[in-house]
């Protein structure tokens, strides 16, 4: 640039450098989307951050295991990096991964799902956002079975749809869904029914006969089913949990959300997938292009290896988690203050303590006084106050120490 040209811009540069730094009052005048002001607080995330600030805390508040991604998965991704698989990939995933997901359903369930219905995504959370964004509009209603992970409710809120919560009902044998209450909650504004099975946080598995009843109801009324099936392999008495995909037709208004995070210890990889109806491919592709243009290319080759060779890994993890669940069951049964409807799946214990109605206050005390971080139940729905969620996907030594610390606070 010539000297005269530099002289020409100096006044404007000087003016910029002398501009006043924004103050707190200035920031308050900024206008973001009004829907963000109406988002319900995420008390689970808030308590998780609170626990991170304390030294020596055992954190069982987050939904992930303590095992690192197995080497055979990481090695496949590393090889993909070495092979130069670092460029843009198709927005819905590389063809090899979409085909491997199809093969996975064929092996596991005997399903014949064409790859045109299978979309690789940058996490199960992204899969849920893509599904909801494709069908929901301002003013729609979504009927959600609770307790449910708060991020799913937040995803609905961001679409400016209204959430109608229908809670599961606990008894000594576990958790149960009253289908009449679910159906009665649906109106002419209901666009979708949101169901997580197996459930985070309860471990409830929706029976196949209930799935059939919900599918028939939804078909009759033109309502979408959005099924979060992320925990479908984390079952203790069967190879997998029943899936809506097993009973639905290709044209049904059904989205099934899944993830590599839980079963394959890949939470930090941010990889998931979505199965939609036959007509949804181009719609989901268009949204994905404006989202993040698809998952990382090299990571998808690690996901392929997980699906091909991950069964022994899943079984080993389930053996560990079942042992931890049994330890919790033994402890809870000895403590008259604790109510825990048994868990059929997932790696959570969702329980409440007699005389402790404020789960946020109890969670904070557990961190402050026992160095144990658990998620407050109120984060999972309006009817969940007083409950706590404990993730037991950890080592035996850690679960033993966690039980010891829990007993310090709420022993008999």
Structure commentary:
The protein is globular, with a radius of gyration of 24 Å. The protein has 15 helices and 15 strands. It has a seven-stranded mixed β-sheet with strand order 2-10-9-8-7-3-4, with helices on both faces. The longest helix has 24 residues. 43% of the residues lie in helices and 15% in strands. α13 packs parallel to α15. With 412 residues, the protein is of the alpha/beta class. It folds into two domains: 126 residues, Aspartate Aminotransferase, domain 1 (Alpha-Beta Complex), CATH 3.90.1150; 236 residues, 3-Layer(aba) Sandwich (Aspartate Aminotransferase, domain 2), CATH 3.40.640.
Q: Topology of this protein?
A:
Blueprint: H1 3-17, H2 24-28, H3 34-37, H4 43-52, E1 58-59, H5 71-82, H6 95-109, E2 118-121, H7 124-135, E3 141-146, H8 150-158, E4 162-167, E5 169-171, E6 174-176, H9 179-184, E7 190-196, H10 208-221, E8 224-228, E9 254-259, E10 272-275, H11 281-291, H12 297-309, H13 311-334, E11 338-339, E12 348-353, H14 359-370, E13 372-373, E14 375-376, E15 387-391, H15 396-410
Parallel strand pairs: 1-13, 3-4, 3-7, 7-8, 8-9
Antiparallel strand pairs: 2-10, 5-6, 9-10, 11-12, 12-15, 14-15
Helix pairs in contact: 4-14, 5-12, 6-12, 7-8, 7-11, 13-15, 14-15
What is the compact description of this entry?
The protein has 15 helices and 15 strands. By secondary structure, the chain is of the alpha/beta class.
N→C terminal distance: 79 Å
**Gyration radius over CA:** 24 Å
Report strand %.
15-25%
Number of distinct beta strands = 15
Shape: globular
Share in helix: 40-55%
How many alpha or pi helices?
A: 15
How many structural units, i.e. domains?
A: 2
Overall average residue pLDDT: 92
Q: What is the string of helix and strand elements?
A: HHHHEHHEHEHEEEHEHEEEHHHEEHEEEH
Return the CATH architecture of the largest domain: 3-Layer(aba) Sandwich
What is the CATH domain class of the largest domain? Answer: Alpha Beta
The major sheet is characterized as:
7 strands, mixed
Spatial strand arrangement across the major sheet: 2-10-9-8-7-3-4
């Amino acid at each position: 640039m010539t000297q005269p040209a530099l002289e020409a811009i100096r006044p404007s540069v000087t003016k910029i450098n002398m501009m006043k730094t924004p103050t707190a009052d200035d920031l308050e005048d900024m206008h973001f989307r009004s829907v963000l002001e109406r988002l319900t607080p995420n008390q689970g995330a808030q308590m998780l951050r609170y626990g991170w600030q304390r030294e020596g805390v055992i954190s069982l508040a987050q939904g992930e295991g303590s095992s690192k991604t197995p080497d055979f998965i990481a090695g496949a991704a590393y090889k993909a990096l070495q092979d130069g698989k670092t460029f843009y990939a198709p927005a819905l995933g590389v063809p090899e991964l979409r085909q491997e997901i199809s093969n996975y359903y064929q092996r596991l369930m005997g399903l014949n799902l064409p790859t045109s219905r299978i979309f690789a995504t940058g996490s199960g959370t992204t899969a849920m956002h893509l599904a909801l964004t494709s069908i929901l509009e301002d003013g729609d209603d979504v009927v959600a079975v609770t307790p449910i992970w708060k991020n799913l409710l937040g995803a609905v809120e961001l679409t400016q749809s209204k959430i109608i919560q229908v809670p599961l009902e606990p008894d000594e044998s576990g958790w149960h869904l009253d289908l009449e209450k679910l159906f009665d909650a649906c109106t002419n504004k209901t666009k979708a029914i949101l169901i997580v099975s197996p459930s985070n946080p309860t471990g409830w598995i929706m029976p196949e006969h209930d799935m059939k009843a919900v599918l028939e109801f939804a078909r009759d009324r033109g309502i979408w089913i959005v099924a979060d099936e992320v925990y479908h392999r984390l079952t203790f008495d069967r190879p997998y949990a029943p899936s809506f995909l097993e009973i639905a037709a290709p044209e049904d208004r059904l989205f099934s959300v899944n993830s590599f995070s839980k079963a394959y210890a890949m939470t930090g990889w941010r990889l998931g997938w979505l199965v939609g109806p036959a007509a949804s491919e181009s719609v989901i592709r268009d949204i994905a292009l404006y989202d993040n243009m698809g998952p990382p290319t090299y990571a998808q080759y690690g996901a392929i290896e997980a699906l091909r060779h991950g069964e022994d890994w899943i079984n080993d993890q389930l053996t560990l988690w079942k042992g931890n669940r049994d330890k919790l069951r033994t402890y809870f049964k000895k403590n008259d203050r604790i109510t825990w409807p048994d868990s059929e799946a997932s790696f959570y214990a969702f329980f409440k303590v007699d005389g402790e109605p404020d789960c946020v206050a109890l969670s904070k005390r557990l961190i402050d006084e026992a160095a144990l971080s658990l998620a407050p139940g109120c984060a999972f729905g309006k009817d969940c106050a007083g409950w706590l969620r404990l993730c037991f996907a950890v080592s035996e030594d850690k679960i033993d120490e966690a039980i010891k610390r829990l007993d310090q606070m709420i022993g008999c």
